């Protein structure tokens, strides 16, 4: 595992991990969800290695081992730009290999926004898991109003995200490890929450602009993010998106009891895309 560093346009150092193989058939970049870090995806990276993919994962600003105020980002554009800088470093490793971008939850929101806004031909496809488009519950009205106010006058103000780790997976060990992980952050700033909501609204307004092949999936038993919003986005873009709803699966499909089947399905999708593109 080789540690790398990416510097953002405003001077924040981002921590990157890579797991590579000999004679790779493609590359995958991973964008994690809110509050977590890339270390929680090492089993996913190992599965990708086993299928001959080089894998790179980044701790977003304000997360894990990266710099920046924990749980904070000033706006959506800064996060999109961070992904762009990350991909530049990865692309330099292999100029001609197929490159896929994977994002989970908040990372899924960011990946979809990146795909819509990025007009280059760098990516061969994208994979999105339970993207944060709409929460599965309705926050108290006062909390929403306070959040909007603080996003304007005090964007760095942070409060508990209120996440119940038991909703991540049916495996209680996942919850235990999450709650005791020193790199997991449990607070979110008004600025970051506003940025995610802006990104979600942008997705709903501009989803018809997705012009890249993608595989989108969601657990039907997700109590954190509303799978119906994800399903609508996917089914409204069937020319480009393959959709999969996993019955009985919680928010983190890659950490649930069905994780092997979940990970294998989107790996198989990437391999099929590479083969039908006559890259290998």
- Summing up helix and strand content along with how strands pair, one would put the structural category as alpha/beta
Helix proportion: 25-40%
Outline type: globular
Beta-strand percentage range: 15-25%
Radius of gyration: 18 Å
Instruction: Estimate nothing, just give the exact number of structural domains.
Output: 1
Straight-line N-to-C gap: 26 Å
- Classify the fold: give the CATH topology: Rossmann fold
**CATH level 4 superfamily:** Alpha/Beta hydrolase fold, catalytic domain
Describe this structure in words.
The protein starts with a strand and ends with a helix. It has helices spanning 42-50, 76-93, 106-117, 141-153, 172-179, 190-206, 227-235, 259-276, and strands at 2-7, 13-19, 26-31, 53-58, 99-104, 125-129, 158-160, 187-189, 214-219, 241-246. Helix 2 (76-93) crosses helix 3 and helix 4 crosses helix 6. It has one domain (2-276): Rossmann fold (3-Layer(aba) Sandwich), CATH 3.40.50. Helices cover 37% and strands 19% of the residues. With 280 residues, it is an alpha/beta fold. The strands form two sheets. It has an eight-stranded mixed sheet with strand order 1-2-4-3-5-6-9-10, sandwiched between helices. Strands 7-8 form a two-stranded antiparallel ribbon.
């Amino acid at each position: 595992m080789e540690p790398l560093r990416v510097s953002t346009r405003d001077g924040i150092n981002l921590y990157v991990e890579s797991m590579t193989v000999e004679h790779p058939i493609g590359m995958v970049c991973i964008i994690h969800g809110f509050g977590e870090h890339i270390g929680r995806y090492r089993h996913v990276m190992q599965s990708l290695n086993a299928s001959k993919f080089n894998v790179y994962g980044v701790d977003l600003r304000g997360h894990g081992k990266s710099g920046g105020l924990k749980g904070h980002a000033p706006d959506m554009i800064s996060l999109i730009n961070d992904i762009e800088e990350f991909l530049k470093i990865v692309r330099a490793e292999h100029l001609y290999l197929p490159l896929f971008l994977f994002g989970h939850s908040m990372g899924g929101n960011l990946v979809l926004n990146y795909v819509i806004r990025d007009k280059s031909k760098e990516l061969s496809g994208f994979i999105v898991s339970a993207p944060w488009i709409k929460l599965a519950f309705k926050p108290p009205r006062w909390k929403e109003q306070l959040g909007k106010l603080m996003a304007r006058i005090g964007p760095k103000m942070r409060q508990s995200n209120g996440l119940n780790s038991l909703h991540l997976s049916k495996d209680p060990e996942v919850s235990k490890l999450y709650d005791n992980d020193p790199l997991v952050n449990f607070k979110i700033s008004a600025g970051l929450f506003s940025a995610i909501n802006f990104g979600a609204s942008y997705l709903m307004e501009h989803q018809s602009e997705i012009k890249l092949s993608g595989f989108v999936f969601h657990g039907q038993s997700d109590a954190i993010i509303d799978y119906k919003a994800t399903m609508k986005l996917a089914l409204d873009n069937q020319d480009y998106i393959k959709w999969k709803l996993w019955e009985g699966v919680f928010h983190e499909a890659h950490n649930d009891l069905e994780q092997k089947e979940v990970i294998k399905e989107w790996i198989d999708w990437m391999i099929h895309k590479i083969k039908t593109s006559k890259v290998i």
